[in-house]
Specification:
The protein has four helices and three strands, in the order αβαβαβα. It is of the alpha/beta class.
């Protein structure tokens, strides 16, 4: 389900954000889905960015080195401000 939603979101290019604020855990399957969507987004001249990861998810991203692959924002509002150049 998530794989399909992300594929639809990134197909047209541009920046897409995934709000991780309610995600308490992410395993290798979830990371794989995010990476596949990132690859698809970049293939369409876009990007996939992450927002508001909880500490456990942020730690998983750090351990796997994915914090160096994805742009990670403290909140969705921070993403919007960065993407639009307008402070919220």
């Amino acid at each position: 389900m998530l794989r399909g939603e992300l594929a639809d979101a990134v197909v047209s290019g541009g920046k897409t954000v995934v709000d991780l604020g309610e995600v308490e855990f992410c395993d290798s399957t979830g990371l794989g889905v995010l990476l596949a969507a990132l690859k698809q987004a970049r293939g369409n001249n876009g990007d996939l960015e992450l927002a508001a990861p909880r500490p456990a998810v942020r730690r998983i991203l750090q351990i796997t080195g994915l914090d160096e692959v994805f742009t990670i924002h403290e909140s969705v509002d921070t993403f919007v401000a960065t993407a639009t150049g307008v402070a919220t």
